[in-house]
Amino acid sequence: MMFDQQTGQSNPDLKSSPFLEINLLQPRVSMTEGEDGALYLESLESLNAYPHRLTTRLKQWAKEKPDATFMAQRDENEEWVQLTYGEALQKASAVSQFLLDHGLTPEKPLAILSGNSLEQAIMILGALHAGIPFSPISAAYSTKSTDFAKLKHCIQLLTPGIIFVQDSRMYANALSVLPPEIPVVSVTNTAEHQYDFNEVLSATVTEDVEKAHQNIKPETIAKILFTSGSTGAPKGVINTHGNITANHEQNIQTLPFILEHGFHIIDWLPWNHTFGGNSNFGLTLYTGGSLYIDDGNPSPAGMQKTIRNLREIAPTIYYNVPKGFEELLPYLRSDKELCRFFFSRLKMFFYAGANMSQKLWDALEHLSLDTIGKRLFIGTGLGMTESSPSAMFNTLYGSAPGRLGLPVPGLTLKLAPIDGRYEARYKGPNLTPGYWRNPEATAAAFDEEGFFKTGDAIKFFDPNDVSKGLLFDGRIAENFKLESGTWVNVGNLRSRLVAASHGLISDAVITGHDQDYVGAILIPDLQHCSQLANLPPDAPLAEIVHHPRVVAALKDIIDELGNKGTGSSTYVKKAVFADFSLSADMGEITDKGSINQRNILTNRAHIVAQLYSPDSDHPGIVEFKSEK
After folding, report:
1. pLDDT (tens digit, 9 = 90+) per residue, 512-562?
2. I want to staple 287 with a disulfide (CB 3.0 to 4.6 A). Which of 257, 263, 275, 400 is the partner?
């Protein structure tokens, strides 16, 4: 027996405990090798036929079960408001007519600025039904930005025919910097010169809507999703109708239990991201399921709303980022009634956006075992906005964090050898044709064989048994995600650290992949550091960098950057000067004097671990503690 310190419960050894079995695609692939050493993997399961219009399934469910709940959201009185499939088709058709009447075309799409809502869902369906592209733009670009630079870039690139907002007053500042000639549709606080959402729904539907619907081809653009722009201006990723419907079919062939148990979810993930918008919204529509909009999120205030919702809605699959699962755990552990209801029809946990820690993985399995007597399958895979999003899924029981599985049916995975690692490259019906009005980026994104270059490095879990799947092996480039799924711009942080150090730091190795915060191992400038410590430059390195004056100066640097930070990815929480010399033999420094981030992180893993250990006794570690 194993006693779990977190739950206070006695549990059998996890490895020998049974799973709640669900129907998953067996991992079977073919693998061939190219002349250049590239490997090509394909699922032995052929991709089934799929509709090439996204709202084909909306018409089907509106006919077969018009009164079934498609989506629901709490209103101002905290009551759930249902949107049935019958209502969704009726209202979406009116939106289609309105958009056509106002001249929207594939070159004049619909832009959406606000967060998830029933009204936004109806606008989305209306655009899709008429073959008009839409682009949900991150609400943060409109509500948290001060210069609106990213918003203005997106709108300038899109040239939208209409902009939709939930609340005109909330988005007034953002709208004021956009071209005034673009019509605006608002649900609440509609201004005099704007269209009220009810006016949109009052449009008289003509045969033009069905004609536009029938003109949709697989290559018709469905949506433009903007990348985060962490390394530059956001790029608009094109997803076609065929891309997205193919990916839905790839999903349910890989996870067939979805059709057996129903797809019923409660979800906060924003629709301007591919995880929430393509996967969760889309699979609900494709399978005839139901999506309850969670108005919470993984924050202290947001979790109160999430817990309130989970007391009333029991999902069949629970999707989240690792940070979301981590925030949920204490509530489930302390409230047995909530926990029992949460697990009452749950068949799978599914995480994406970042890797999950082994500690969190084990805690979820313990909780499942305590509650239903079996371990719940924890699913994940690998994908991206450009693959609509799913490219790989792990379907093996008894896995662990980092296991990505194998390619979905219909997709060819190319493992291209680069600098001793394999880069994942994709080709298939779910892959984007490119970037919106950006031919240079589109051309650079594909290799000579037409495979999309992901930048993700992967490796075999067992080189002698391909069926055991693949593992994530970092990024070919340096940037990474925190546990929350937020990208960290490594180059930017390195530059800011050096610039703020008054000569004490010559370079920085940024840490934090799949961790809760950013850390750094700093390469000291020996001349400046030794002068500050009043020691000769040839004194022992550890003596120099651990000197109280040097440590105090480092604390000042970290505090200065931390106080200027706007989010967890924009500052370093813990840092330490390297008390070792970089090794050329170990590949830590090149002939030109450049440092190799990846090799240092690998070779000095024990120092990285100290940055994330609450019990670290390293004398040189400093920590920024926010007073905000």
Report:
1. 999 999 999 999 988 889 999 999 988 999 999 999 999 999 999 999 999
2. 263
* C-alpha–C-alpha distance, residues 560 and 564, integer Å: 7
Cis before 389? omega within 30: yes
Strand locations in 254-340, DSSP E?
264-267, 290-293, 317-320
pLDDT (tens digit per residue) in 448-499: 999 999 999 899 999 999 999 999 887 787 778 899 888 888 877 888 898 8
Helix H, strand E, coil C: the string for 57-79 is: HHHHHHHHCCCCEEEEEECCCCC
Tokens of 46: 């052929």
Structure letter (DSSP) for residue 276: I
Using DSSP's 3-state secondary structure scheme, residue 538 falls into coil
- Calculate Rg over the CA atoms of the chain: 26
Q: Token pair of 580, please?
A: 């070792």
Buried b (16+ CB within 10 A) or exposed e, 80-93: eeebbbbbbbebbb
Residue-by-residue DSSP string for 138-179: -THHHHT-SS-HHHHHHHHHH--SEEEEEETTTTHHHHHTS-
Comparison of pLDDT for 565 and 310, the residue scoring more: 310
Reported residue count of the chain is 628
The span from the CA of 375 to the CA of 377, in Å, is 6
Q: Measure the CA angle with vertex 494, ends 492 and 496; round to 5°.
A: 70
Candidates 474, 519, 271, 226; CA nearest to 355 is: 474
- Reference 278, options 318, 313, 238; nearest CA is 238
| 294 within 8 A of 309, measured Cβ to Cβ | yes
How far, CA to CA in Å, does 474 sit from each of 179, 232, 513?
41, 21, 9
Q: How many helices (H) and strands (E) does the chain have?
A: 23, 31
- Tally Cβ neighbours within 10 Å of residue 565: 18
DSSP state of 594: -
* CB-based contact 137:151 (threshold 8 Å): yes
The residue type at 159 = T
What DSSP state is assigned to residue 14? G
